[in-house]
Amino acid sequence: MIKTHSQSAGPRPLFPVKTTDSIEKELSMATRPLIWIGLIAVLLSACGTVRPFGASFESAKYNQILNPDARKNLKPATGFDGHAAELTLKKYREDFERPAPEPVYTFSLSPIGGR
Q1: How far apart are CA 7 and CA 68, in angstroms?
Q2: What distance in Å separates the CA atoms of residue 18 and residue 24, rounded to the nearest whole number?
Q3: How far apart (Å, rounded) are the C-alpha atoms in residues 22 and 45?
Q4: pLDDT higher for 79 or 37?
Q5: Are 29 and 36 within 8 A, CB to CB?
């Protein structure tokens, strides 16, 4: 006798639901240690990375120094006459006597690439 759809117990599910017992049976004794080793390796690898904090600052500072060994040279600087030095210091000090200009704020409501 041939079973028809109406005589069967119901449609078979496309993806059968596995119980925890069947999952535990699938994980054999050989695969469990590999899972633990992999998990421990992943967790320990996160601890092994140390980012060099401040390296970007130190690199930028070093790249802006013209002569890194200049601090070893204790000879006075030459080539800057007294009159020019006096005018430079006077202008430098006057810049701090004036109050800073008020900032100008602008707010635009034009569309992007507007006409």
Answers
A1: 91
A2: 10
A3: 32
A4: 37
A5: no
